[in-house]
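step 3/5: co-fold with beta-D-fructofuranose
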Amino acid sequence: MSDKWRQKLHLEPPQGWLNDPNGLSYYNGCFHVYFQYAPDSPDGGGRKCWGHYQSPDMLRWEFTGTVLVPDIPEDRSGVYSGSAIEKDGLLHIFYTGNVKEDGDFDYILNGRGANVIHVTTSDGCAMSEKKVVLRNSDYPAHCSCHVRDPKVWRENGMYRMVLGARTRDDKGCILFYSSPDLESWSFAGEHSVPNMGYMWECPDCFVIGGQKYISISPQGLHHEPERNQNVYSSGYFAGSEFIEWDHGFDFYAPQTFETPDGRRILIGWMGIGDIDYTNPTADCGWQHCLTLPRSLTRLSDGMIAQNPVKEYESLRCGKISAADGSKKSVPLPFDLCAKTDGDFEITMDGVILRLGGGLFSIEFTDPAIGSGRDIRRARIGSCGDIRIIADMSSLEIYLDGGRYVMSTRYYPPAETITIGLHGINADLYTLRGMEVTIHGK
Ligand code: FRU
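step 4/5: write tokens
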């Protein structure tokens, strides 16, 4: 094993385990990306903390270390997911303090504390004293102990918070709270949809193109051959329709934030809990990464297109034109761009990407390269273009202007791969990596 699968375009932990993106924000001239971090184990065991990256431009990143650790009774079993918002020159962070009491409990209806905890920082790294602003007794009586993942935003002169929850009769829902000052919070309603699973995690509410959207990561959806294929899902509501953010093997718990120039950006965890496929980097001491930051735009039918932020185009350093029927050797990482007008097939070592009869699929033909992944499908109809961002151990595939996305981890044996094109011509841009410096633990 070697470091050959260390990503060059995606944020990953220096060691240990990463899951959800947290506290995404632009504050004090920097982008801040916090994340669920288990520094002591690549399998997610041990302390669950927040790790922190910051960047002036989303291309040069500094890891500043573990900035929130479980160290008070109200977060003793984990500093769980949450969000950040600027007010009066400080960055205000809200997260879930998870508490598992000792004893014979089911940890669903009893034995678990879910505290919303508030801290502030003036530099993104050093945190103030922790204050509990909501605890189990503040949630509706019909909720189980699974209530978490506060996302806070400002709307009509008030602060609003949304929390994900599971009711005592196993239905996913979200809870709303509001506050004039980020300190005192009052219950402001609840929302759920029938037959949408037993738990909604990591909710988010935002506006794109004048339209309000709710995003959730529901657990317990019915799996179908072309929809909700993963153990857990995540998506947004366009009207009453639930639309998955990503149809690949590895995507969960996304969060959004707004840049100073008004772009709504989404970052997800390029991973999921409780999967039966694996990531061989765990044997080298780390596991999981985040997705690229994706810029969101509203399409005329209400769907949301996702595309890699334009900053990544500045990493292009060479161009290879590849014609239909050709085979090219290309070093990772690369950015493949192609217009399409009909069915096509793109082969890469151990994986086939195929559009046929309106169905797009990603299929691993070599089980080692997929590390247990087999096939994922998306019913996309016709498709005007495809863009593939291939990093050292992942593929992010953007279809039809970003209307559909598929993300997967991918473990090729070498750092150069062979691409075959059938029914499609493509431009392949080789990419420089991002600059990542590690300044903490
Ligand atoms: C989603 C999630 C969140 C929770 C966090 C714990 O992946 O389960 O609901 O806050 O991970 O790490």
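step 5/5: annotate
The chain has a mean pLDDT of 97.
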